[in-house]
């Protein structure tokens, strides 16, 4: 194509992928992750091999700089940087094309913001700020409840539920903050009786608490992962097992791997694997996704099987069980 490719064309993305695809060959030690024009490289090392890892990082950054010069493609150095997960005190001097790369406290991947300790509180704060602005605009400019409810479902709720499987690691305070957006909406739409609780307000408006929607969505994702209905780099289908001898509700459970840290305990596959094992056997053994969704909706009408009686309280309907 001698005349170039117009932006927004059908061929544009394909030709760009062909153009940039060889960039991953610059990395041997690191694991590159390329999405369109966004490149991230992950290096794994232990405390005794940090110096050698840094040398490899700089060598591969030099190769990356040569690749950029060869193909006349410059990186936006203002958007480049490095972050260490696990040791926030580590200081490294890394250079790309004569530009020193700054140390980053937070990184954004496809709309998800996280810190060096894999904490999503800043991501939640950003999403809450955006959601509250949108909700405020809706409440100020629309006065019919039908319009408010429709716009909330279209514009606000998807923002709060984006990549909801990450919310299994949320702190209790963050869960309360997320739920507070919908709680505020229900209070504004049902005025005149402040004694109506959140659960009743949601029922009157045809809404579900956000934590219950997350629970359903994440369990549906777990079902898809178990049955190879969606892509993942982690194979979890082999985790399913049934005991050689029959025990009540022990059919089609998943094996929970051992963990030593709280962060690992909050990992999606571990946390929702434990919830999966508590589901009724009929739900876990569903033959297809529509049947599973139908049985799951019935099972989630009463969530007492997910929590211990000692932890059951009135606040459960506000933030949900702590293990969700």
UniProtKB/TrEMBL annotation:
Domain of life: Eukaryota
One Pfam match: RVT_1
Start and end residues of each Reverse transcriptase domain: 1-139
Record's protein name: Reverse transcriptase domain-containing protein
Natural source organism: Schistosoma mekongi (Parasitic worm)
